Amino acid sequence: MIKLYGVAISNYFSAAKAAFIEKQIPFEEIKVFPSQKPEVLAESHMGKVPWIDVDGEILTELNVIFDYLEDSQLKSPMYPSDPFERAKVKELIRIVELYIDAPARRHVGTTYFGAPLEPTAFKEVRSVVENGIRALLKVAKFDQYIAGENFTFADIAAYFHINFAQMNMVKIYDWDMISDTAPLADYLQLVGQRPSVKETNRIMQLEFSKMAS
Ligand SMILES: N[C@@H](CCC(=O)N[C@@H](CS)C(=O)NCC(=O)O)C(=O)O
After folding, report:
1. Does 61 sit in the ligand 1 pocket, CB within 6 Å?
2. Structural domains of the chain, with CATH
């Protein structure tokens, strides 16, 4: 059985987990924190989570894991079959990863682990995230789901990455970017009802509350 490594408080790990559930691919979850320790680097090339172990072979990077799950299980497709529509789904995933999650992530030391606020990051991050949101709105269809009528991997990535960015924006800038950006609130509410996402998010929130107490 495929082993999925990481921690529930990670939006990347939780997105991978929801993808396994959605594709109905059995997996064993193994709790490990990202780190630069040799034992982690021996498996996860960059020391990040998630990674998967398929019969002793390692795969890292969420979007690579999405592709692997899709190609190894044709049931319950999570990408459109049309090449252009499929590329649009991947474009949306890149936008939420590179231009919303990545800049917001510069504050994670402060928001998750109580590190002092970094003044350069404070000055730079919000406008980069605003630009990412602008790009997302330009590409997204919100025709029920982000890439159209069908639920895709882009919905999973958008749900976990936008909520992660939101948590950072609220804590650092007191900016409720989701409420400020129609139709994000309604869209995320809809995706959050999807059983794979709902269950994964429930565990994630449970882990957050344990961390806070
Ligand atoms: N590009 C990676 C990003 C994964 C990532 O940033 N994971 C975070 C947890 S949400 C992590 O491991 N952070 C620790 C680090 O960056 O060293 C992917 O697509 O899987």
Report:
1. yes
2. 2-72 (3.40.30.10), 83-212 (1.20.1050.10)
